[in-house]
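Q: What would this complex look like in 3D?
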Amino acid sequence: MASEESLEESKKKVYRKEQALKRTAESLEDDEEIELPRKRYYRQRAHSNPFSDHELIYPAKPEDMKWSMLYGGSNEAPTVADVGCGFGGLLVSLSPALPKERILGIEIRVQVTQYVLDRIHALRKQNQGKEVDYTNIACLRGNAMKFLPNFFGKGQLKKVFFCFPDPHFKLRKHKARIISPTLLSEYAYCLRPGGIVYTITDVKDLHDWMRSHLEAHPLFERLSSEEEESDECVKIMTTATEEGKKVARNGGSKYIACFRRTENPK
Amino acid sequence: MVNSVAISGDILYAAQGSKVYKILYDKNSSEIFKILLNKEISLTHLGLSEDCKYLIGIGDVDKTVIVVDAETLEVAYTHKFPKRPSAWSTCKGNLVVADKFGDVFSVKLTEPLSDEARKNMEPILGHVSMILDVVATENNVLTSDRDEHIRVCEYPNSFVIERFLLGSRSYIAHLGVSGNYLLSAGGDPVIYSWNWKTGKEISNFNLREYLKLDNDDIDVISVSVTEKEAWVAVQGQPKVIKFTFPELEIVDAFETPHIINSLANNGTDCFAACPKGLIKVCKSASLSPYLELDGPEDILSQTHLRKAPRN
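A: Here is my prediction, written as structure tokens for the whole assembly.
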């Protein structure tokens, strides 16, 4: 059994390595057909400890970031962030919806990040020259709870998404939640006044937690239900993510709350 | 082990093991250092309140910050916090305390909270990583953490982050503020000076090159900043380096007879706590007045701040 497992594991490793090689070695002019990566080779446990020192690569400051390496073309910085982007479903759907914005997914799990990179690479290749060519989405491995200000300067972001975050049910783990009173100040720093925080979860307790902390924070105000309902990004967020689809398949509920970054008090 | 020193005029305070000493410095006397008082209190991170009425330090046990009458060395107030404090600062009668959990709390210096109020204490700001130093000024709080960040928040509206001062390559254990200028130092071989009000880096200085050390693992153990000067001590080095501030040009390097744990200065003279006593930093090591403070050996628990090197 053990050897079978390791055989399976090594198959996955070989596959992921091949995909990564394709991504780096191939130039986009190459004629060879490219297939979308298969998710089963990239599975990784859902939880990650945000407090530990992962071997992360991050710029010392936002000005050091070479965005052109991720997006190609200019060095223009992203204005939309998907924190904990998972397998990248939201990124892919947001790409045509926000064609003028550069969108960045941040994911802490190595293999999941690799999947998204391979997915974006394949999509770009398949859609070269088309109207939607996926050059406005990118993904990197990172710990957003610790290093968001390394990537994003003051007021750089217009939108931040938190889709189906890890609920961290245990009380002593609540500090590990991606929304907390003290972290909200960091998100407010990266967001420009008028920018929007989107949250969605299938866990009622977590929804209440996120909503109540955002409501209590002096720099956020909730969008009206009309605004939430008419926001195209809310529709996409509800239907496009892998988690969102899973919840729908299982007949679960989805709880949504969106907040606007207000001006700093004088 | 003498872990910490503080000064107000010509009165020095030193914390050693379970004792705190009050010492008179008189360079014209035959007895340059005269011990005036000592009391059994276990403290680290000594410093004085703005009005110099209180000596403040982090308690050895029970997650406390202890406020001591600077005259009598009697404990005046004991502030208890949810987690072990790692640094503190005072401003306008407030005591601002950071902890290893990454949270910062603000309380009134001379009004300890009731048990009930303490349970409901909310942090005024927080980092996801360990906070190593905090400085409160009239309108701002500056914090530094193990992940190379210096954060400048408004105060008391500490939910408004004004800016980050970024570029350090290791943990930042020490912040020294004078007016608009800030000295930052820690595990980076380079120390930095900033205008923290604009976010502009003013200058930096490479200690590793200057000390001709081979490895990158330089730990600055203490800094002491005045309006025009900065004094810096590096772990394991019997030496205090004096800079102009904020330009960070070397003025002098003073050899000391022992390695240094902590620095303090009163605007004219610089004093250093070394493992077994107190030194007045002087031109030459042999001329430096030295006061031995004998006591039981205690081992300071060292927190591991440096991250594992990347492969």
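A: To summarize the key features: The domain at 68-261 of chain A is CATH 3.40.50.150 (Rossmann fold). The CA atoms of residues 53 and 143 of chain A lie 10 Å apart.
Q: Very helpful, thank you.
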